[in-house]
Amino acid sequence: MDLIISGRGIVLGRDFKDAVTRKVARVGRLVPALSEARATFTAEKFRRTVRLTLTARHQVFSTTATDADLPVRRARFVRKVLESEVGRRG
Question: Which ranges of 1-90 does DSSP label H, i.e. alpha helix?
């Protein structure tokens, strides 16, 4: 599985990227045909957004979440996004 983590207007540290990798790997066990995962973090003036797109063989799962204070709660925010996507589709 290919994992692409990108940040627009925000600097993502190595520890944070490792945490996202571990959490997406857990989702990969639930969707064995997962071929690509893309996480994009965007920082605007008063809004932080993460968009997660999972590409499987014949399906694309996509979810977006927005919060005002993403840098403080990044890991919890990513977990919330992943749980909402898996809970909705699983």
Answer: 14-30, 74-89
